[in-house]
Design brief:
alpha+beta
Length: about 170
Amino acid sequence: MEPTIKINRFPKMAILWYVVAKEVLGFDERTAKAVGYVAATYFAAMKNLKRGKRQQTGKKHDFSQPPRGKRSEIPKHLEFPFGLKVPFDPDSAWVSFDGKKYTAEEFDRYMRKKFGPYQELYRAYVKFAEQIVAHHKDPSFWKQRWFDQVWKRFRDEDWAKGQLSIF
């Protein structure tokens, strides 16, 4: 019997936004991975805020604070299509979210931990995300419509099958 591996929504979201950042927004491979990881972290935080799991201070939470440490390192801000604006450094390929730097190396480490010896499964997930993004190359799609038309539709499917149903 084949061992089973449970993949939750977080890596799917990270992979999807990694592909969006690379294919639609035009980032290089390393920065795209950091962007994907931050997008998944952002939506997990929003879900936890909605459910009351994160401490609420009574004011709007500002996820755009710069990374801890040297504040003068932040040369630019990245604005995601869905409105999140965060500090990032395209030269070093890191993106800051809620005061922490996220890098391509962290993305890769997380995916190795999550998928373990099943890296072919990870590649199948990336291929599935690439098929989704190939149908939606217009950056304006990723501002709002993606959540209902893509995420809600495909988040619970088995991405390892690799076949995208017709839109």
